[in-house]
Every structure is written in structure tokens, then in C-alpha cells.
Amino acid sequence: MFRLALHWQILIGMVLGVLIGIGLRAIGTRQSSLPQESLPPGVAQVEFQDSPDEVTIVVTTESGDVSTYVVGGAIPDAGAENTPAVFLPTLKKLSGDAPEIAQAFHLHGRSWGRWLADGSNRLGKLFLRMLHMVAVPLIVTSLITGVMGVGHASRLGKMFGRTIGYYLLTSLLAICTGLLMVNVFQPGLKANAQPAGSEAPVVSGNLGETLFEQLETLVPKNPIAAMADGKFLSIISFSLLFAIFAVIMGGRNAEIVRDLFTALFNVMMRITMAIIKLAPLGVMLLMIGVVATQGISVFQSLAWYMLTVVCALVFHACVVLPLILKFVAKRSPVEFAKAMSPALLTAFSSASSNGTLPVTLTSVENRAGVSNRVSSFVLPLGATINMDGTALYEAVAVLFIAQLHHGENLPIDQQIVVALTALLASVGAAGIPHAGLVMMLIILNAVGLPVEMQGIIIAVDRVLDMCRTSVNVWSDSCGCAVVERLQTGETN
Ligand code: ASP
């Protein structure tokens, strides 16, 4: 039976969500008042006016005092003539400041449009919860399987050090490129949209202190508690440690661990793929919520966001990696790219480094002439932990979300936290479609951004996933040439 490819389904879900969201905005304004029997003591009247961009609530007490709350509208300049109303950026803020009034609005004042938008937003968040649900087991099993694939401890020597060195260096370079571009392009500040709900100004902390805190989380006091609490950095460091020592120990124990985790990883992959199949519905529901409450100005930024990610990926793949290939591996980048083209195209169409691995292995060995000894070590490990494209994308996406949310750039120390967590997130990401999305939750948590804002970028994730996966595979392949050169340089 004919079935539309998932990315088309997601795109259709997105378009439908946008159209329904616009429709809900068109439902227009609702005016109502709190029923007599629900009025709190001492209050004579509560009137609501709910329009897509602004909610006004007027409370009149029995003694005739009037207080007005305006939520979401333009906030008057400080210093402008005193207005008697209280201006608030979001309904969430109203719930914090005046919970009874917020509750009354939710029960009696919402327009149909807002009621439906809130409902679909809530349902859409179920999809995000599912992604959250698989994140921890997926990371643990994927990392342990990747490292255990190395096979024997004797291979964990110099080659391991060089390979990891290459992975870390190129991923960091990719992240720097991403951060640079997102600071220059500022995609999240392009649409003149209202900040999506920053409650507090972004405060810059002490960099040394922040970094040391990250270091501390790499050494969890209790790894099981870290898993239960979803402390991703701790989970990644402990899983790596566990796998490395299992490989060093070798023998029957290592075999059991490898078989067990490979089986668990396969199951987790199946579950994740099944959840991803719900993406069209999830995207549609989240889009309805976003468009109905924020309007379509959000898309102007989205085009800039995609442009930023693509420009940064192109720069990394066509400038940074070829330079390393030319000067460290002493290979012609053009020839090497031609040899790797089957793998790069498969990566682009499948959006999965793991799925592409067999093609990458054969292309590296048969077409680019790298020895099996190097490729069978560098590539399987790379497919799991070396993801330059993903690291770059994570950094750009999180900064973009921060720009949208706060209406300004993150301060430099927070950007450094983003860079380091993006590095670890890319190490932990499984080589399957959309894995980067799951891992982004780590970074959003690390810098205190709301995870539901991911809803905005999910819609365009597939196409960016295709691009970043090609870069991931390209970097793994270049890594083979570099490690081989360093190994032979030593034997000569
Ligand atoms: N799809 C990517 C890969 O397989 C991972 C990601 O989602 O960034 O390499």
C-alpha cells in the first residue's frame, strides 16, 4: 500500500496545524464576566475580554475599586505616564501573581479559540513526554553498545586516544561555527515577535563556577539517582565509564554485557521509531497551540533559523573538515568526497548514521582505500559518538529558542554551557533519525529553557536532520583518513 514518507507526513501535519491555528485566531474576541455565584467575597464584578493577542481582566470590588490586568499585550515603556493596569507578559505569569484570577479566567473567560489551542497544546506535550520517556534508556544503551563495539582492550590504546581526540576537536569546531553563525544571524530576533514568555531577565553568572558545576555533574554521587532524575550529563559519563571498563575487562563478562546492551538498544530503537511515527500528529497539535497564541510571525524566524543551521553545516563540511583532511591526513578533499559520495547520499536520504554504517564502511575501505583495521574501529564508534552536525545543530537550535524566549541573546557564560552540553549531547545521541531532538532536552534543561518551545522547530527537523546526518558521516569518514595517517606516520 502507498504510504507517504514520514517527513512529508510531518510537513503536512505542520501545515494543517498552522492553518487550524490561524483559524482559531480568527474566531476573534470573547467578552464575558464571572458568574455571580463564583465571585469571591468582597468582589462585585469580574469582566474578561479574550482576544488572540491580549487578555484584559477587570476586577471591581464592592467598595468600587477597580483593578485591571492586561496579559500579552504591548507593555508600556517604563517612565511613560502611569497606567492603572497591571501588565503581564504571559498567562503563566498571571497564574503566579494572581492565581485566583488566572483560575477564574481559565474556567469562565477563555474564548473557544484559546480553549481549543490550550487543549491541543496539552495533547501535543504528550508527544514530547514520550520523547522524554525514551531519552535515558536510549542514551545508556546506545553509548554502551557503541563503545563495546570496539571489541578488544588492545584496541583501546593509542588508536582510541587519537580517535577520541579527533572526535572532540571536530565536534568543538562545529559547535563554535554554529555559535558564531547564530550570534551573527540572530534568527530568533528577526521577526520582531514578542518574547515568548521570559519571566526573568537572563542573568549572567560566574563562568568558573558554572563550569565547575558542570564538571561536578559529570561525577554523579549516585548514578541510579542521576538516571531517575534525568541528569543526562551524569548518565553519559557513567555509561562511558561502564562501557570502557567492560571492554578493558574483556572475556565472558564483556560478552554478556555487550549482548545484553545490544539487545536493549535494539528494543529502544524500535520504541523510539514508533514514537517518531506520531510526530505528524504531535507537530500538528503543537503548531496549533503556537500559532493560535503567537501568530505566524514565528515562521519568519524559522526560515532564518534553517538558513543559519545550513550555512554553519556547509562551512564545517566544506571548509573546516577539508582543511583537516588536506593538512593532517594529506588527502585530496575532492577525491575523498567523491569516494565517500554513496555514504553521504545514503546518510542524507536516511537521516541515520547507524543505518548508513554498512555503506560508510564499504566506501571507506573499497573506494577511499582506508585499512579495515582503522575503519572497523573508527566508524562504528563514530556513528555513535562523533556527531559534528548534530552538535552544531543543537547549539544553533538552543540559542535560537533562547532568542525567541528571552528576546535577547544568551550571555556568554550560558553559551559556554550550551557548547559543552551540546558536545555531550551529541556524544550521547543515537545514530537514528531525530535523535538530536531527544538530546536537545538536556541542553534546554541545562540553561533553563522551556522544553515545549521545541514544538516550533520539530516541524522543520527532518530536512535539517538529513543535512546534519551527512555531516556526521562525512566527519566519521574524514576521521578514518586522519587516524590512518597518524598510525602509519608512527610506524614509518
Ligand atoms: N540523525 C542523526 C544521525 O543519525 C542524529 C540526529 O538526530 O542528529 O546521525
Task: Give your account of this protein's structure.
The chain is mainly alpha-helical. The chain has 2 domains: 33-105, no CATH class; 118-491, Proton glutamate symport protein (Orthogonal Bundle). Helix content is 70%, strand content 6%. It has 19 helices and 5 strands. The protein has a 5-stranded mixed β-sheet with strand order 1-2-3-4-5. Strand 2 and strand 3 form a beta hairpin.
Offer a quick outline of the entry.
The protein is built from 19 helices and five strands. The protein is mainly α and 492 residues long.
Give the topology.
Blueprint lengths: L5 H21 L3 E4 L9 E8 L4 E7 L4 E6 L14 E3 L2 H7 L1 H11 L2 H37 L9 H28 L21 H12 L4 H6 L3 H18 L1 H26 L2 H16 L2 H31 L5 H18 L2 H15 L4 H14 L2 H19 L5 H17 L6 H12 L7 H5 L2 H31 L1
Helix pairs in contact: 1-4, 1-10, 2-3, 4-8, 4-9, 4-10, 4-14, 4-17, 5-11, 5-14, 5-15, 5-16, 5-19, 6-16, 8-9, 11-15, 11-19, 12-13, 12-19, 13-14, 13-19, 14-19, 15-16, 15-17, 15-19, 16-17
Bound molecules: aspartic acid.
